[in-house]
UniProtKB/TrEMBL annotation:
This is GLPGLI family protein. It comes from Psychroflexus gondwanensis ACAM 44. InterPro entries: GLPGLI. NCBIfam families: GLPGLI.
Amino acid sequence: MVRNINNLLLYVFLLALFFSTTQLYSQETVEVHVRYNFIHQKEKNSVDAEVPFEETVILSVAQKSSRYVAERRYNSINKAKESKSQSSNASNAGSTIVVSGGPLLLVNETGTLMREEIMKNFDDDELVLTGGIGFKSYRVTTDIPKIEWEIKTDTKTIGDISCQKAIGKYAGRTYNAWFAPSLPFNDGPWKLSGLPGLILEAVDDKEEVKFIFKELSKNTDKQKEKVISFNQDSSDIPTKLKSYNRLKTAFESDPVGVAKAQFPNVRIGISNPKKNASNLKIKNYNPLELELK
């Protein structure tokens, strides 16, 4: 009986090892990186609205998959690789920063920093969003959004690349996008995709959300960089998109309140001397996705 159990455990281990090895070798090599300036007006219809949130993001694209993440996160991973200490330095995006006196919530002049990663797998029609809300990390697995684009005849040059215009609606916003037919990837920043060419720019018609092209570079990594997740961890909390969006809205509207609910002894670190913990609330929050799914 014991021998049978041991044999079964060995079989399960070998099977798991086989599938993990298969998955490792099935990961695609990144072909191009696109840097965008992501701008989001988080507060609307208010004379007291702060400057828009702004951050550089990187879309790493392969033929059938991609990764979208903040540039600072991407750079921290590469720095960790170079120093050969990735496991200790490149922690999960939702990990708690422990300091004397309790965990630390960092906020800059435009609010809480972007802590999301989006992985797309076009073969499986799967989008995996991993996001840190306060000191917890959540994972949402959904289908890749099906956006009905209307391709226009308008053209313009972006970064020496000829682009064509398309208009599409997603999550309550209408986006004016510019895609490059010469770049044969039907992908784009964030959750935008589905055009016959890589999306280099997208702005909603109210100009509250913008993805502005900064730079495109081919992957010259000698190690043949793969499209792998930087954020996903076994401690991620699985949840539905609608629940995640509600949690995100609550956190970005009142980051200190949500953080204190998670950890009563939380410390607040603010880089803008004009701000303090009492005026970090957003009175009229303007989410990326106006229609919660």
